Amino acid sequence: MNTIAIHRHHSGYSLVEIMVGMTIGLLGLMVIAQVLSISQDSNRTTSSGGNAQQNGALALLAIERDIRQSGYGMNVSQNLGCQVVGTDSSTGREVRFLFTPAVITQGLDTAPDVIQLTYSNASMVTSPSALMQTMANADADYVVSNRFGFTVNDLVVAAAPGQDCDLAQITATPGNPYQNNITHAATARYRGSQIYSSGAQIYNMGKSPASNRYSIVDGGLQVFSEITGEAELIADGIVDLQADYGINLDADTENTVDEYRASPDLDGNGVVSWDEWEKVIAVRVALVSRSGKKETANVTTELPSWTGGVFSNVSNLADWQQYRYRVFETTVVIRNILWKPPA
Questions:
Q1: Sign for the pseudo-dihedral over CA of 16, 18, 22, 25
Q2: Cα–Cα distance between 298 and 42 in angstroms, integer?
Q3: pLDDT in tens, 163-190
Q4: How confident is the model over 16-50, as pLDDT tens digits?
Q5: pLDDT band at 5 (very low <50, low <70, confident <90, very high)
Q6: What gap in Å lies between CA 319 and CA 322, rounded to an integer?
Q7: Over the stretch 114-163, which tens digit does the pLDDT of each residue have?
Q8: Which of 45, 129, 198, 224 is most enclosed, with most CB atoms within 10 A?
Q9: For the domain bounded by 122-208, which CATH number is listed?
């Protein structure tokens, strides 16, 4: 039997076909890579925008909360604006703040403003007690008309017309409920230096009062406690802060804001009197949150603005037009001023 051999021709891809296939594949990879790059860039923009919104909301919430609390425990108008001075003996640091709910320090030129908010956290007594006898020295007991609510470790502010206010801390109270001595010995953490005459007012500020200063530090909102000396970053990416006082010019009983001003110095004499501080019934505040992502091209053509004007400090930031911004603003009533007894 004869065997017939069948030979088949086997052929692969030619070099040209391989090169064409590789070229098509590379083009496809380039398109995919570009689509992914655009998608990721869009995601980064969205994510950084979301972070900016969250940071701005948290920053404004912190300030708003303290404005609502400000002024608690400051029930006698004639002592508003007193300069409180004390010494933190644990560090030797001098403690200084104005005895008034809200103080706005206007930034120089286009710099951000600074807001300081002060309030008591006393749980039982919000009205001051009168000093019944003149002190023999700065460490002498406060002998008051009624020491109800004053307890050991409470901080107190002593105030009298024509004097700085003292910040001191209670170290002892008598066991006899009919004795009204309040001891603030030299061993206390917070010590004052003033000697007060009969008739001065002693305010109970509670164990953890607040005098919180909000400011822009290194591109974020920082709060500094004037009482404890501690600083905390509230939110990153906050690049400007502006605020105005809401003033009830005619002091009417309707308690409406007649005008917003940068200063409560209504008569322009350079000194804010207690009755001018009393007319501050609200704070209008706004801040700018910046996205963390720097775009490749300009995406912002105009400076952010709010009801009170333009955030000019933004223009001082490097490449400011290549970032996106979000403005947050609110007006908060200082309710503790409205609720206090008449002067």
A1: positive
A2: 15
A3: 999 999 999 999 888 899 999 999 999 9
A4: 777 877 888 888 788 777 776 666 665 555 555 57
A5: low
A6: 6
A7: 999 999 999 886 789 999 999 999 999 999 999 999 999 999 999 999 99
A8: 129
A9: 2.40.10
CB within 8 Å of 298: residues ≥ 6 apart: 321, 322
Count of alpha carbons within 13 angstroms of residue 228, beta-carbon side: 11
Six-digit token pair at 81? 């604006």
pLDDT in tens, 289-308: 999 888 889 999 999 999 99
Question: What does the pLDDT read at residue 33?
Answer: 74
Which regions of 100-141 does DSSP assign to beta strands (E)? Answer: 102-105, 114-119, 129-130
What is the identity of the amino acid at 110? T
pLDDT of residue 134: 97
User: Where do the domains of the chain lie?
Assistant: 43-77+98-120+209-343, 122-208
DSSP annotation of 290? E
Residue 45: how many CB atoms within 10 A of its CB? Answer: 15
Residue 75: its pLDDT value, please?
81
Residue showing tokens 């019934």? 281
Number of H helices, E strands in the chain: 3, 20
| Predicted pLDDT at 252 | 74
Distance separating alpha carbons of residues 101 and 273, to the nearest angstrom: 14
**59 in Cβ contact with 235 (< 8 Å):** yes
Can you give the pTM of this predicted structure? 0.86
**Helix, strand, coil percentages in the chain from 3-state DSSP, rounded to 5:** 20, 30, 45
**Which DSSP string do the residues of 32-100 spell out, in sequence order?**
HHHHHHHHHHHHHHHHHHHHHHHHHHHHHHHHHHHHHHTTTT---GGGTTEEEEEEETTTTEEEEEEES
d(CA 150, CA 161): 23
Q: Which residues face 329 on adjacent strands?
A: 286
| DSSP calls for 210-257 | EEEEEEEETTEEEEEETTT--EEEEEETEEEEEEEEEE-TT--TT---
